[in-house]
Amino acid sequence: MLTCSVHPLPYRANPADYFAAIRHAPGAVLLDSGRPTADRGRYDLLSAWPLEQLAVLPDESGGDFLQRLRDNLARLGEATLPLDLPFAGGLIGYLSYDFGRHLEHLPSLAQDDLQLPDARFGLYDWALISDHQLKTTQLVFHPTLIDSEQQRLIALFSLPGIDPVEPFKLKAPMSADLSADEYRHALERIQHYIQAGDCYQVNFAQRFRAQCQGDPWAAYCALRAACPTPFSGFQSLPDGDAVLSLSPERFVKVSERHVETRPIKGTRPRGLTAAEDAANAAELLASPKDRAENLMIVDLLRNDLGRTCRIGSVRVPELFSLESYPNVHHLVSSVTGELADDRDALDLIAGSFPGGSITGAPKIRAMQIIDELEPTRRGLYCGSLLYLDVRGEMDSSIAIRSLLVKDGQVCCWGGGGIVADSEWQAEYQESITKVKVLLDTLQNL
């Protein structure tokens, strides 16, 4: 098997310094661990000029699209890496929440007003990877990449001086699509379904949006400074549009066939003083309601992973851990497993997408209720940004705290899990708290 070549570059804690060099290149994409402020992520990964751009067709089954991704990985060809790095060439892109419609039969009540393709990937034969643990930055070249292109990329990333970024600004304040009264009615409907025995929990979200102008990259740089998170990302779309994600949540990771998912369920705002902050964290850790919600999703994910993992390999090594971010505290658990011999990372996606933490339980019924009660399709929100390399290594986020800049407007969503004893005012406030730092940052640009 051929080995990737690696070229060292000066280490940069902030990937924006390097990404600026490819900002306007076709298929430019950044998976960003939120350094130097966020402390959980290890790697940043960026690339551009994909060999192929792959979007799911409106009537294409999820299985057929995932097979197309598999075929393109095979065409690029397996390769090894001389160093411990996460990506040896392969696929980088997004699955929207609505890619779930290609995997399961769901109603089509919610309006598709954003017209975002349900999945879009590039096939990349190089990447720039920063390892924040070892404080190194490397260019990684798949063995099929010709030498002249390797030299072009080395020269590109060795040049100082960057074009100035066009500023980004809102033309009006971000406003919610739902009124408080409409939100209350939707929650009452969910609780009616719960009482009728249809479901145990439904994740319900509302959308905020505004007309905007300028470069989405400028918005992303401001957002990552205000809210650094370990599963951030920026993906260029055609016509100057972009996906901007400031997600704290992993979906599924596959490394040497070991699988991990880290669901978030349970949230409290950060306090204004150290004492208030500690009290909010303690309240979250002790909350029977939040622990019950978290456990419900852990059980759902154990079931999802069980579809593609070796029988008996699924475990819950971590339950109800506290993770704190600039705006909120979260309750997080971990579910792990080992892929069955005849399964791969794309089978895992087919069996577990979209993530249970952002649908509810049972999953399919919760997704039907979401489609009935959320007036518009989620698109990118609650989907996933991910990479999958030619070795089968994969990591993916759940695209919460995420924005879409498209057709001259920016959209952002906030939501939460609704259960039998949820209070609508508290849930309404939580959906705003989760994205307030993003909305405020955009407002002040």
From TrEMBL:
GO biological process: folic acid-containing compound biosynthetic process; L-tryptophan biosynthetic process
The keyword Transferase is assigned to this record: yes
Annotated Chorismate-utilising enzyme C-terminal domain residues: 180-434
Domain of life: Bacteria
Domain Anthranilate synthase component I N-terminal: 13-137
GO molecular function: 4-amino-4-deoxychorismate synthase activity
Record's signal peptide: none
Its EC number(s): 2.6.1.85
Pfam name, any one: Chorismate_bind
Keywords associated with the record: Transferase
Classification via PANTHER family: AMINOBENZOATE/ANTHRANILATE SYNTHASE, AMINODEOXYCHORISMATE SYNTHASE COMPONENT 1
Name of this chain's protein: aminodeoxychorismate synthase
